[in-house]
Model the fold of this input.
Amino acid sequence: MARPTSRVLTLLELLQSGGIRTMAELADRLGVDGRTVRRYVDHLVDLDIPVEAVRGRYGGYRLAPGYRLPPLMLNDDEALAVLLGLVAGRRTGLLTATETAGETAAAKIRRALPERLARRLDAVMESLAFTDPPGALATPETGVLLAIADAVRHRRPISIRYTTRDGRRSERTLHPYGIVTHSGRWYVTGTDPEIGQDRTFRLDRIADARPLPGSFEPPAGLDPAQRVLSGLAKAAYRHEVTLRIHGTVEQIRTRLPASVASVEGPAAAEGDPHTERWLHVELRAERLDWLPPVLASLDRPFVIERPDELRDLVIALADRLTASARQA
Done:
């Protein structure tokens, strides 16, 4: 059974052949009803393809006079780079909420390529395998992403409708500094001028983004990616964990990245960064059971300041490891 995407492309090909195509003809060629044909036409219009409706006894649809799709000129390396980029985007969450966007883009590129090159690229795509399965990633709406990106570029305030993790909805004003992707999710970081605090929001939880009058000036030396990582490490979760770990920042970051924990101490600001010393580590977590194996894998001296529950979990893990090691 043909997919809707292929039928929309077939509709475009029929219209490109010239003349007026009646509703009955299009429905028959596509194997759908008239209502579905109208929906496919709306898809083409959303892509800025000027499809005109012609009324009357012999009416139907046609492309606007003089309109031609631009030619697509790609060499082997360029075509492979584009298709692999679409595959990678689909697997890593770098997509919009339109699930078929990558599929339709790949289909258009495939149809525009010379048959020799298209067959060779098909062979690459069919033989390609991945060690990690694709996850169920949250993706933003296209309109929201474009509106926020425009506000970042022109330094304009925006109003967003946001839904929090626990389902609470609100409308907020934001001075957006940048858009960041991390672990398959999209974030926007900026300042809420009403409370004067830095905020980070997930784009997939934003239902609407509208530009507001005025402008703002972002802070000097701004690093949006670092702001997002710091915000994630300080997000409100069930447990607040405080540790002291003897080592370097680099050693600690191998198991506790910036998106998980904050690391403070002399080595982070002065002296030789490769010198081991006691560093203050803070993190927040919804569960604690994953932390004992992480601390063990660090293989560095550490002290648990809080919570006591974590200390008990570490002792239990140590007992299990000891019992396993003594077995013949």
Remarks:
- The longest helix spans residues 308-326.
